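Data card: per-record layout.
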Amino acid sequence: LEAFTSRFGFIERLSSGGGIHVNTIGGTLSFFVPLLLSLLLDGGIVQWTSNHNNQPIRSLVILYKVVVVLALAMVLSVLFFTESRGSYLGCIIGVILLLVWKDRRFLWLIPVLVLGLIVVFIVVAKGDLPDFIALLDTTQENNTLQVRWDYWKRTLYLIQDFPLTGAGLGVYNKIFQGLYLFSPFASELEPSFYAHNLYLGVTASMGIPALVLYFTLFGSFTSMVLSSIHEVHPITRVLLMGLSCGFLAHLIYGIMDNYLPGEKLGVVMWIYLGLVTAI
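The structure for this 279-residue chain is written out next.
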């Protein structure tokens, strides 16, 4: 991915920092996995709505399905190579919610996954919680979770000092390098580029009131979906379900990572909000 983004300059210009981090790509793709899967598993609504006696229409329906399958395959393949575990977790939860929402018989997936985690914890990790967490931390250095924990604690320090206004947009790294020296040897400090958490990042940049507004937007999104899901056309219902589960997948991703303020890929969240509002 790094070689791809460096070879094609127009991809580098998509983000304000001159390049796209793989976790940012993973967070963006988490929007689309549940959406594309919802469009694919429409229960035959598209075929039922179309005129089966019209061959051109049937051909378009087949073409539509092929395009959705290819798009889903492309998204999953790129998502796999990002190695963004926050995106993986968000997509898994979003897909499970989507399947259960479409068919309650998929509820069996939840106890199976819980049982699988218990077996891994007891058999593989020997019942030791640090070893179990280490299994999830699959980077070569085995320090992803520890690094994020350190970033979260540092971000909380910043929020305590700027609770109402935040430190400002795009100054997270500068603030830590200039004001918060956690080591007497500056050369040993790891650069704190961002909070690695959507909710802490918003609060650190714009203050606690901005976080309240963010959750208000999420609540409005949920309210609009629940109030209209049974009133719309079946095809639109399939779209709403995919948008909702994709949005949830991204919010789960936001626990582990976040966009830097001003990154253009962040517009996807606002497009999802706009689509649900329009529906």
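Known properties of this structure: The longest helix spans residues 55-82. The two ends are 35 Å apart (CA to CA).

See the next section for split statistics.
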